[in-house]
Amino acid sequence: MVLGAAGAVLLLTGLVVAFFARSYEGVLQEAFRERSAAYAAAFADAAGAWLAREESETARQAARFLLMGSAFYVQAVVRGEVLLDERVERADSLALPLLSVPPSARTVRIARLDRGPRYFDVLIPIVLSSGEAGGSQGGYVRVGIDASSIAARSRGMTLLASGAAALVDLLLIGAFLLLFRRSRLARAERGSLPAGASTPEEAILELGGLRIDESRKEVTLLGQELSLTPKQYALLHLLARSPGRVFSDREIVAAIWPDSAYANSKDVKQQVYLLRRRLATAHPEGARLVANVPGFGYRLAHSDVDEGLTGS
Of the four, 95, 177, 226, 235, which is 20 to 30 A from 185 by CA? Predict the structure, then answer.
């Protein structure tokens, strides 16, 4: 059950992280697409003006400046003629087929260099005008922009999200294990009756001359009813459910003061002392029912003293 719950938590977290990573990468890609298109359009506007004025060297220097950044290639084509084609070394062999008909609007598609990173192939239409009637010429500027940073940023965010998810998983699994352990202890305490005790339905513990009515919270010793405080009753009931078993101070504190951060061994000794006094009011040997095991804790010693109790 525990392993199944832990597996379910891990599977659900993995699916959430995977969905987050995919969505985040999609957001990054869309934002980068828009920036790439705007980046290429700004160059195309300037390049169109330079080429129209036959300032091809200025356009070429500007293209080389782009290559120093994130561009793989910069190409300008007018009426099927390549006026500008600058590339980084790894894009030298990249085939860029000329378009017979210039695009009517900017287009952006994602592609990948051979065994290399992904990039956005951006086409921006341009019109070169000579200033004479009928002198306008249509063409386009094509820019390839490195998109590998998208994957790097997505991986970084995914690792961060995975670390946060792992921490949440540990907390959830830890909390589940704690609840499971407490549930098992509670079931064990409710379901395990010592030898000689009555059935759970009757909710009565009888150990020699000691009788505990769990439903009424009444305790009698040799037929004489004892007036116990809730803490004294809880201590006696704890010991009586497992007679002979030694309970440490820590176990007694956890059972009697479950919500207290300050209860300690001194409080246990005080309650043992008071409980013994109440037991002694029913019979002088009654105090011996709660036996101290030096260095370990306390146990209910009914079998050790029953003969003394019933023989008087």
Answer: 226
Q: Give the CATH architecture of domain 2-154.
A: 2-Layer Sandwich (3.30)
pTM (two decimals): 0.46
Q: Residue holding tokens 């390549």?
A: 82
Summarised one tens digit per residue, pLDDT across range 20-77 is 777 878 888 888 888 888 989 999 999 888 988 889 899 999 999 999 988 999 999 9
Angle between helices 265-282 and 230-241 (to 10 degrees): 90
Architecture of domain 193-311: Orthogonal Bundle (1.10)
Q: Could you give the C-alpha distances from 125 to 4, 81, 117, 170, in angstroms and in order?
A: 59, 14, 26, 55
Q: CATH 3.30.450.20 region(s) of the chain?
A: 2-154
HSE at residue 286, side-chain half, CA atoms within 13 A, is: 24
SS3 11: helix
